[in-house]
Each structure stands twice: as C-alpha cells, then as structure tokens.
Design the sequence.
C-alpha cells in the first residue's frame, strides 16, 4: 500500500493549500491588528497634543491680555497714584481713616523704637547689654 503523503493526490494538495491559506489569513489578521493599534496610539497622541495646544493658546491669550493691561495708560496712572502720590489737575485726594484704629499710643511707639534700636545692634553688643546693661529679661 502506498504512503498517502507520497502521493500527489488532489486531497493532499487541497489540504496544503487550505493550511497555507489559514497561515496567510492569520498573518494578515496579525498585521491588521498591529496597524489598528498603531493608528489608535497615533490618534491618542494627536488628541493629547491638540489638548496641550489649546491650553497653551488659552495661556498665551491670558498673557497677552495681562501684557496689554500692564502696559496701558490706565494701569500706569493707577500705579503712579498709589505709589508716587500722583494727583491730576482737578482731582482732590481724600484720605479716610477710622478713628482710633490706626493710632499708636506713645508707649507702643517708644517700645517699637527701642526694639528697632536693639535689632540694629551687633551680636557682641547684645550680649554685653544682656549681662551688664539693662536686661528686659531679668526677674
């Protein structure tokens, strides 16, 4: 009896063609899946870049608005009035203070002056005063 693999029967050739077809189809499906995944990754990167681009555009617009505000004549005049005391012709300056809230008593004033004087001393001078001079921490 002859070996069925050695025969060139149509059954064996059909079997080889079917197996080769399955291998080719599997390879094509693999390549298709890889291509779809790569396209998905590229699309997600594009979406991320578009989102970052829109955020940068908004930030750029905010900075342009800030620049235009800070270089405007109104802002420059406002800063000159607040910091330099600028008064235009025809304007009157009115300073409103709450009664008694911002006034400092003489004792507080003297204490702040003494503290400022002590803060200006060098470290050895502070130790000298601590041991031999007027020490506010003595009992």
Sequence:
């Amino acid at each position: 009896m002859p070996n069925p693999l050695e025969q060139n029967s149509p059954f064996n050739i059909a079997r080889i063609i079917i197996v080769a077809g399955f291998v080719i189809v599997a390879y094509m499906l693999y390549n298709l899946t890889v291509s779809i995944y790569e396209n998905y990754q590229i699309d997600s990167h594009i979406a991320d870049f578009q989102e970052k681009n829109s955020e940068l555009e908004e930030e750029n617009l905010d900075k342009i608005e800030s620049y235009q505000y800070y270089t405007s004549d109104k802002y420059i005049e406002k800063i000159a009035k607040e910091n330099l005391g600028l008064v235009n012709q025809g304007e009157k300056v009115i300073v409103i203070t709450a009664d008694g809230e911002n006034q400092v008593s003489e004792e507080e004033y003297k204490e702040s002056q003494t503290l400022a004087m002590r803060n200006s001393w060098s470290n050895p001078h502070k130790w000298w005063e601590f041991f031999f001079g007027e020490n506010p921490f003595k009992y």
In short: The helical segments are 10-70, 73-84, 106-119, 123-132. The mean pLDDT is 85.
